[in-house]
Design goal:
By secondary structure, the protein is α/β, with parallel strands linked by helices. It has 20 helices and 8 strands. The chain has 3 domains: 191 residues, Nucleotidyltransferase, domain 5 (2-Layer Sandwich), CATH 3.30.420.10; 91 residues, HRDC domain (DNA polymerase, domain 1, Orthogonal Bundle), CATH 1.10.150.80; 88 residues, DNA polymerase, domain 1 (Orthogonal Bundle), CATH 1.10.150. A 6-stranded mixed β-sheet has the order 1-4-3-2-5-6, sandwiched between helices. A two-stranded antiparallel ribbon has the order 7-8. A hairpin with a 7-residue loop joins strand 7 and strand 8. Helix 9 crosses helix 10, helix 10 crosses helix 14 and helix 15 crosses helix 17.
Length: 393
């Protein structure tokens, strides 16, 4: 192993960032553990420029601000695969806001790959190389790192710049680069990384089947747990598991004794947080939050199932025509919403936030025509496999 493959001093980091600022693009990846903390522990930062890949050891370098300044600068472009997790971890540990990010996983979806395509598959497809596996579950906190661990980590950035250049050219050739850039804007928006509580609220509400008149309590408990987990820097489920939040919401406890009747809730939890829980419940009932996240409603009205099936077929056809991942073009939630509440006109359809911008350009008026019964479907008239949508009067 070349000793310069991993740097561990402040002086080396300064020299590295000085060189990287002159690059047009750099590849970035991280190794972290998120199992025991609210904020994942950062153990390695991998970067690649024109001189090849190198790793930075954050356990040995106290001041990572030179990297922070690099990530906040407009140039170079930061090329990351499946960027959100890495950005969120680095935003927290370096206190930075990223600028100029290119996500190769997102770009791949605009080029017909699965929405969640792995780096392994992308390296094979774009570079014709089969990267080594074997350290997916490595303990990155141990020092010294083994040579093969470091090589594995460096492989995560070794091919990204080649993939980036190839993807940009392909997106330009398809006329989809603008679409990609519009979709990627959210990657550098800090609000993108503040919606975990909303997602958990919908998940717990659905699995626990919480009644509508108790949603304000559930939302208050979800927010309380976020704050508690962040304060002790432990995973959410270390504080209290999802299903127990649902159970607490359902029984409406007014005392610690009532709280103790929740099966699975430990006496230690009640002793430590019982008073806080009861206060949260009382305040939520008396002063409900007006900003409770929207919950999608489910209906069994006639036609919804058929419209859902037709929309899925249409989506498959359109994504094939455009060469775009179907999951990127229309989300499952949006398909469900359109099937339940079809818009009356194009203006109403494209007032939906998820259907503005490039999606409106991609789908045009055909989606409205389909939902208004002005598109029909038949087997391909030339006898080939597949279906064909056509307009009817």
């Amino acid at each position: 192993m070349n000793e310069t493959a991993i740097i561990s001093t402040q002086e080396e980091l300064e020299k590295l960032t000085d060189k990287l600022r002159k690059e047009n693009a750099i590849a970035v990846d991280t190794e972290f553990h998120g199992e025991r903390r609210y904020w994942p522990d950062l153990f390695l930062i991998q970067i690649a420029g024109s001189n090849g890949p190198i790793a930075v050891d954050p356990l040995k370098i106290k001041d990572l601000s030179p990297l922070g300044r690099l990530f906040e600068s407009k140039s170079p472009v930061k090329v990351i695969h499946s960027a959100r997790n890495d950005i969120e971890v680095l935003m927290h540990h370096l206190s930075v806001r990223f600028v100029s990010v290119f996500d190769t996983q997102l770009a791949a979806a605009f080029l017909g790959h699965d929405r969640q395509t792995s780096l392994f598959k992308l390296v094979k497809a774009e570079c014709g190389i089969y990267p080594k596996k074997g350290h997916t579950l490595s303990n990155w906190s141990l020092r010294p790192l083994a040579d093969d661990q470091i090589e594995y980590a460096l492989d995560d950035v070794r091919y990204l710049l080649e993939i980036y250049r190839s993807q940009v050219e392909k997106l330009k050739a398809k006329g989809h680069l603008g679409w990609y850039l519009e979709e990627a804007e959210s990657l550098t928006d800090p609000s993108t990384y503040n919606n975990t509580a909303h997602k958990l609220f919908r998940k717990v509400r659905s699995t626990a089947k919480v009644k509508s008149n108790r949603l304000q309590v559930l939302w208050a408990l979800i927010k309380w747990r976020e704050n508690a987990a962040e304060q002790v820097n432990r995973p959410r489920n270390f504080v209290v598991k999802d299903y127990l939040l649902g159970a607490i919401t359902a029984i409406n406890p007014i005392s610690k004794r009532a709280l103790s009747r929740v099966r699975g809730l430990s006496s230690g939890f009640i002793l430590k947080w019982g008073d806080e829980i009861l206060k949260v419940i009382e305040e939520a009932e008396n002063f409900p939050d007006e900003n409770i996240p929207d919950i999608p409603t489910f209906h069994s009205a006639p036609g919804i199932s058929a419209r859902t099936d037709i929309l899925r077929i249409f989506l498959k056809q359109e994504s094939s025509r455009l060469g775009i991942s179907p999951e990127l073009l229309l989300s499952k939630d949006l398909i469900s919403s359109l099937a339940k509440n079809p818009p009356d006109n194009e203006e109403e359809l494209y007032s939906t936030l998820e259907l503005t911008g490039w999606r409106k350009e991609a789908l045009g008026s055909d989606l409205v025509s389909l939902l208004k019964g002005k598109l029909a479907m038949k087997l391909n008239p030339e006898g080939k496999a597949g279906l064909h949508f056509f307009k009817i009067e």
